[in-house]
Write the structure tokens for this entry.
Amino acid sequence: MRRLMWLALFLLVSTSTLGCAWLRAAEARQLTLDHELTRYVIEKPLDEAWKIALSEDKTFWEVIAGRGLNWEETGRFQARSATETDTDKEADGGVRITKVWFEAEGATAGDGSQIHFFRNSETHVIQKGQSSLVDSSRYRDLEMELAFIKKLDPKAGAAIEAKARSAEEEARNE
């Protein structure tokens, strides 16, 4: 019985350690990507880079985002993708509606440009004819930016990816 208790304790500690290592690695990757992508400047004028970012070629965005994105310009060097909606019925009769869309923002940076991508999400619950917002988020989609840079400038994208992978490995091995 004691052996079983020690084994259970060992497994619990091992699992939590592995979970912590995974979290450290994921955080290290995100921090490195944020740092490197913020520093990276596309060696094209913003007008030219923006046309590539808003490419109407569906396969271009399927490679980058895993989905074909249509972009609508919402301002100067600002664009929004079409909204994807997911609806679920809840056990209490309410309806949960989740909307997701992406935004692109471009800016001149030195002799080049930068384009950042953001993932937006809103969740509404409709209960007895009343709608309420239960969650709203917006975050910079670093993986989408990395995929865009890798498509635009494969050498720079590979270098950024290598730094992120290295940071991830170091954090996992701490």
User: Anything to note?
Assistant: The longest strand covers residues 112-127. The helical segments are 2-39, 46-53, 58-65, 142-152, 154-172.
